[in-house]
Write a structure and sequence with these properties.
- It comes from Balaenoptera acutorostrata (Common minke whale).
- The chain is an alpha+beta fold.
- It has a 7-stranded mixed beta sheet with strand order 7-14-13-10-9-8-15. The chain has a 5-stranded mixed beta barrel with strand order 2-3-4-6-5.
């Protein structure tokens, strides 16, 4: 039996789809990012702040090593680090460049160095997963006291762990544990030692298995996946089934008779948001965004509040969710399940068919969702505007409403959303959509059976537009009332140096890109490329490159930043933005709900000074970044298992960068980036040269038949090539190799994304 798993990073309001960390508002899509390093056990230098949201706010794509390779990745000149191959000719220009006096080098080529003088706050969990080994020198004093812990993450140092922490028979039977994954916590790292000191925390199980690997990822990134304590659970309503207290009806606007419905991934159980759209006699519409009133169930200062604040976000893995709140709240009391009375916080507008706001109302409400639509249901309504959809193709609808009424509402919302979206991009918004993987899991084993690129369709865009509209409206409201105490979300402009490198790269490649603003960049991406397969692939590669200079979107307290120009959201190109629409899975949204309630006189202003609110914002940023990274690693884990179980996998790929002995590709069917090394291919020879300013590798393939002439292949940036992904002997590593020119058997990446054996879906 199969179970389709959508990408579940429920960020509907993708602030722009830029995930380097692309803020959600920037992206809406999440790239399964493989480090472009050579997988040769050399350490990565990864700037953790590179990873952020999947709400497409920041407009980037998760580029792990954007900073590592610096100019090297984008510019066309650069020498690859690592061993020089005697067979690879080096041009005179390069030789001269390498030997120049550093004083004569341009500033961008110099490696700046610095020294850590003090640790203000320990951010890393100090935990790592890895393997145990005996020390090499059996006669040393250390051998009798310690084993060597070798972390899977090469950024973490190797660690001496006391033998008393290790399994009893480890010293006599070390090979029995060669494939066992352990968790170690670093407790000290002396200045004069290459190795840290640590304690073995636990044995996770066999490397390469989903649950041990997942637990290791969660532990390394400090994700609390423990059961909620009895103290926390006591904060929940005890008398079940819970019903809305009568006094709430007198305090709230009753919308239970309205046609309100949810649109979510088919697998979603935490339904934060619902929509309504009522035609008005004058030709306009009353449109509502109704968000679960989670703050009602999370009393400020309670044990539940404290644990939610500490977790700060739900964490979406491929196979499960680590919730921010107990499941009773996430999936029952707060979730806007159909045909049940629910407490909500609503924003209701009068909108023209063109999306112009004529009036705006905020308030606490009670709704009764009439149906739970999936994105597929809503999409079929959009694609069949005049078709009567058979009841068996739709979920149940409450007796007070009809499927036709819901269909009309979806079509009206779609019409308005198209206008809102068009206007946003006219007004200068940016969106960097990147390829995002969705998996089909075997229902019994949990193993991935297939995968495909998740398609972001009109139904997703419909929901996104109204979530963005609500978030922007709430940001204006709370900032107007509490200019010093508003929790907002800003997206700084791209990093200047990296952007300049990208500008230089595009000039060298003859690409007419305008990077002067978010809107100009978006327009360039839309207009520079055609609709043929090659143009679409080039657009994917350039979108990926454009994501690298993008910064993270950040929560902040308005009273802490003095310069209001810094409040802006670069990708959305708006002066004020916040998160209001996902309080079941983001603590920042709960804080915003409390502020909005105070704005409307439902409660007192939370007793939090700006500095304390900023500290909460910083913590939300940290946990959000960790959550993003965990999500990426979960996707990488499942894809590596898929390659191992179903591989080798073939795909077309496009070259992103050319070095003197290797080249980087974006594998188009799966959205992964890999580096392909010349010395891993059956080549007779290869030659690196520059044609004008463009780097180029000429590969001469060893003929399979001695009677044949060797085939030549030229690899340059934006070359379309055929690659094969193969599992390596090492647990959960896979490599990419170039397919020999003229070999049969490759499917087009667009025609059959995934094939029968490789299928499905994240919101």
């Amino acid at each position: 039996m199969e179970e389709v798993i959508k990408p579940e990073s429920n960020d509907k309001e993708t602030e722009g789809a830029y995930e380097s960390d692309l803020p959600e508002e920037l992206c809406g899509s999440h790239l399964l990012q493989q480090s472009l390093k050579g997988y040769n056990d050399s350490p990565d230098v990864i700037i953790e702040a590179q990873f952020d949201d999947s709400d497409s706010e920041d407009g980037h794509g998760n580029t792990q090593n954007a900073l590592i390779d610096g100019v090297k990745k984008l510019s066309v000149c650069v020498h690859e680090k690592g061993k020089e191959d005697a067979g690879a000719p080096v041009t005179k220009d390069e030789d001269t460049f390498m030997s120049q006096d550093t004083r004569a080098l341009p500033e961008k080529s110099l490696q700046r160095s610095a020294k850590v003088v003090y640790i203000l706050e320990k951010k890393h969990s100090r935990a790592a997963t890895g393997f145990l080994k005996l020390l090499a020198d059996k006669n040393s004093e250390l051998f009798r006291k310690y084993a060597l812990f070798s972390p899977s993450d090469h950024r973490v140092p190797r660690v001496y762990v006391p033998l008393k922490d290790c399994p009893q028979d480890f010293v006599t039977r070390p090979k029995d544990y060669a494939n066992t994954l352990f968790i170690c916590r670093i407790v000290d790292w002396r200045e004069d030692s290459n190795f840290a000191l640590g304690q073995l925390a636990k044995s996770l199980g066999q490397a390469g298995e989903i649950e041990p690997e997942t637990e290791g990822i969660l532990t390394e990134y400090g994700v609390d996946f423990s059961d909620f304590s009895s103290e926390v659970l006591e904060c929940l309503p005890q008398g079940l089934p819970w019903t809305i207290p009568p006094e709430e009806f007198s305090k709230r606007r009753d919308l239970r008779k309205d046609c309100v419905f949810t649109i979510d991934p088919s697998t979603a159980r935490d339904l934060d948001d619902a929509l309504s759209c009522k035609p008005i006699a004058d030709g306009n519409f009353e449109v509502g965004v109704h968000i679960a009133d989670v703050s009602y169930f999370v009393p400020e200062g309670s044990s539940l509040d404290k644990v939610a604040a500490e977790r700060a976000t739900s964490v979406y893995l491929v196979q499960k969710v680590v919730p921010m709140l107990p499941r009773l709240l996430c999936e029952e009391l707060c979730s806007l399940n159909p045909m049940t009375d629910k407490l909500t916080f609503s924003v209701i507008w009068t909108l023209t068919p063109k999306g112009k706001i004529l009036s705006e109302w905020f308030g606490q409400t009670i709704i009764r969702s009439c149906t739970k639509l999936s994105y597929e249901h809503a999409q079929s309504m959009i694609e069949g505007p005049t078709r009567k959809i058979p009841e068996k193709e739709l979920p149940p609808v409450s007796p007070e409403h009809t499927s036709e009424e819901v269909h009309r509402a979806v079509l009206n919302l779609h019409g308005i959303a198209k206008e809102l979206r068009k206007q946003r991009f006219v007004d200068g918004a940016l969106r960097l959509d990147q390829l995002k993987l969705a998996f089909t899991l075997d229902h019994e084993t949990g193993l991935p059976q297939g995968c495909h690129i998740y398609e972001y369709r009109d139904s997703n865009k419909l929901v996104e537009e109204f979530m963005l509209l609500a978030n922007m409206a709430v940001a204006r409201k709370i900032h107007r009332t509490f200019p010093e105490r508003a929790l907002l979300r800003r997206h700084p402009p791209p990093q200047t140096k990296m952007l300049n490198d990208l500008v230089e790269f595009c000039d060298q490649m003859g690409l007419p890109m305008d990077f002067s603003s978010a809107g100009a960049l978006n327009k360039s991406l839309m207009e520079t490329f055609g609709d043929d397969k090659y143009s679409l692939a080039r657009k994917e590669v350039l979108t990926n490159m454009c994501s690298r200079p993008m910064q993270m979107a950040l929560y902040f307290c308005s009273g802490v930043l003095q310069d209001q120009t810094q409040f802006r959201h670069y990708a959305l190109n708006v002066p004020l933005y916040t998160h209001f629409t996902s309080p079941i899975r983001r603590f920042a949204d709960i804080l915003v709900h409390r502020l909005l309630a105070a704005t409307l006189g439902y409660r007192e202003l939370p007793d939090v000074e700006p500095d304390a609110l900023q500290k909460q914002a910083d913590h939300c940023n940290d946990r959000r970044m960790a959550s993003k990274r965990v999500q990426e690693l979960s996707t990488s884990l499942f894809f590596a298992i898929l390659v191992k179980e179903s591989g080798p996998l073939e795909s077309e790929a496009m070259v992103m960068g050319v070095l003197n002995q290797a080249f980087d590709v974006l594998v188009l069917r799966y959205g992964v980036q890999k580096r392909i090394y010349c010395n891993a291919l059956p080549l007779r020879s290869y030659r690196f040269q520059k044609v004008g300013k463009k780097p180029e590798l000429t590969l001469v393939w060893e003929p399979e038949d001695v009677a044949q002439e060797p085939a030549q292949q030229v690899v340059s940036i934006f070359s379309l090539v055929e690659v094969v992904l193969r599992a390596e002997a090492t647990a959960l590593k896979y490599s990419a190799v170039l397919k020999r020119p003229g070999t049969e058997g490759l499917l087009g990446w667009q025609d059959e994304q995934g094939g029968d054996d490789l299928e499905e879906e994240q919101d």
